[in-house]
Amino acid sequence: MTLPSTHLLIQTIILGLLVGGVYALMSSGLTLIFGVMRVINVAHGAFLILAAYSTYWLFQLTGLDPIISIALTAPLLFGLGWVIQRYILSRIENPERSSVIITFALAVTLEGLMGTFWKTTIRSVKPEYASEVLKFASYRFPVTRLAGFAAALLVLLILYLILQRTNLGRAIRATIQDRNAAQLVGVNVQMVSAVTFGIGIATAAAGGSLLSMIYSFNASSQTDWITRVLSVIVLGGMGSLPGAFVAAIILGVMEQLTAVVVTLYWSPIVFYLFLFLTLIFRPQGLMGEIVREKA
Amino acid sequence: MKRLLSSNGLWIGIALLALLIFPLIQRSQYYQHVMVMTMMAAVLASSWNILGGYAGYTSLGHAAFFGLGGYLVALAHNYFGWHPFVSTWFLGFVVLGVALVLGWISLRTHGSAFVVVTIAMVFIFRLVALNLSNITNGARGLTQPRPGWGGVPWSPEFIKVPFHYIMLILLCITIFASWRIRQSKFGLGLIAIREDEGKAEAVGINTMLYKVLAFGFSAYFMGVAGGIYSYFFTYIDPQFIFDVFTGVTMVLIAILGGRGTLWGPVLGAFIMEPLGNWVIGTFGGTQIHLTIFGGVLLVVMLFMPQGILPTLSDAIRQRKKAGMVKAPSP
Amino acid sequence: MLEVNQISKAFGGIKAVSGCSMSVERGSITGLIGPNGSGKTTLFNMITGFYPPDSGSILLNNQPIQNLLPSQICHRGIGRTFQITRLFWKMTVLENMIVPVRHTGWRTLFSQGVKKHEEERAMGLLDLVGLTQYSDEEALKLSFGQQKLVEFAAILMSDPDLILLDEPAGGVNPVMIEKIMGLVEDLNQQGKTFLVVEHNMRLVMELCQHIIVLDHGQKIAEGKPAAIQNNPIVLEAYLGSTNHAGA
Fold it and tell me: What's the whole-model pTM score?
């Protein structure tokens, strides 16, 4: 272990914050899906990568900027998500037990398909500003990460407005709080589930587009990413959006700190450990509800 | 049930005989290899079934114990000269011990949370194996000397045969253990846990103890299998052996054949493993492999979650009942 | 035999039980009544270990049990039926009878000989409730009343000293109620203690020797059936609560 200088420490924290914002965006959909449907969508990582690939090909073929391509990838994946929920996931009788395996199967299938079509070549999107760095108060702000952070906040803001200001959003929030009660007051929970899953995957699309320009990836990266986003929502409290945001920032910072203070190679352990320990010792995470057992 | 057992006994006897003489008849290296892997898949699925089928706790993390067994045996071979065919049975108990501890920690979670915890377990093991390169040789992996006995390596034509027999022994032991558990009060308790954990606890079943024991028992067989595996391939590395996909494959096989039944996992293995090998052989590469496995798992989970064996036996039972007058219920 | 001292339990903001104290005499059939929401089932759940009380203690034969696991409490001799009958639906009646564990030990768990011995005892108990002919039937297939009897018989397998019955007459026809009352009285003669939650007043008044009344999570009265019937506080609790929509 090497103790870094204060400057390096702050620089690392800044990077952690920037990347945490993107993690927050990626995880928001996952926690929303859990809140409404009680489904842990283990395929979320695969959708992130699918969006990353879409952005990559859009960029390769048309030069479309990855951030702008969110306007395309998000609706596209919204539709895909909606279809998947409506025709596949809604058939699950026992979401508590089976949803993980089923979404895992989905993830594996997606990974296989992507790998078949696009091989194992490592990809990443490099817009012209890819290597530019903004300097402020002697700290470095890589443009891609800064732009990613800003885009993430923007999309999260839109999500927030949808949830708080629209009727759909109210229906979603009601379903999260109490599915049965929501049904009783006339909410069409099947429709809400399908739409929410769509929204969840759409935010994954946004996250994936950003991913493509900040990280390199191929089909098998989806397993790394699903563990990251799972850790975020578990730490934040499954079903809690503010929780996911806070947890994403915390984990982002911790990941960067571990990479610098210990070594890059141990940094993934931050996610695994938080995931493992939180589920066991504080399953409600930071801001989730305690689920009462038995009797 | 007793009537069924004696006719079952006949089938088991025939199957056992077939497996015993298999390597003598089938001389092709390739088919011998596939048979060893098939029996191993049956071992893994059957041991998974103890916790996953009987008790209903789906673990995707058993690759952790499989890999741990593999590493322990490889290390013991390289550092102490212990022959895997002997050491794996004992080192399996080390794996059992680790599993008891990890199980005691992680079985506080239920349902989906438990599945996720077991996934995290595999990743942690992988990362540790990758980074503790002083011991595990990190990403470069561990190799063992060519399989043989007493310092004399086995000839290339013969080399798969001893593995066939040791895997057969392991398979018999695993099935026997699964059967004994199923017949015992412990097994009934596991099933009670699956059906209604709260009620099981209320009637005096110490659910935590039962679950941890089930977790441990299944880890033992996986560890032993892992030990044989690492010798079979003479090479293991963290990416290769600590793979969640191995766990998912076990689950698919067990579910396909019939989750919670004695023979279901075995049946599933004898179908899926040769099929999988054929797919890889024909289409090549792991990506198609993933797609097909994922697709099959999806289809099975959605349309045939009971698996083949229970669906078949239900169909048979329906046929028998048709035509019999149902006893009136008061 | 059983002592509950100043027990409290709150769920979120709702105080299900607050400062409740009561006791059950050995060898008695004690009734526990009160309007809906008075905390009876919560109290049962705490006595049987499903969740610990926020404060207070529960003593069984002067030993504290409030932090034990349900299975440990079962081993100490408390059996319990559920308000909504809980059986292992896909198991046969006989299997349901054999599942309960009297005490956890290696031989108990892994020997098949134990299972044979328990089979005899199980059939004996099934005979007691008149259901031996259904021993190989899936529990799901029995009628509602029969399921209640099986649940009751299964509890007896672990030979409990104190039996908690949660609405044993709920949704059951009068003939069955008589049968259940008869069973309880017989077992009581043999020395078993009962704590019964019931809404069926006739059953409570006829069967129970001592009655405890709860309201809003606290004990408001106790005594012999005749005294309780005429107790103005009790009447007000029941009548008063029907004025509020649902309590």
Answer: 0.88
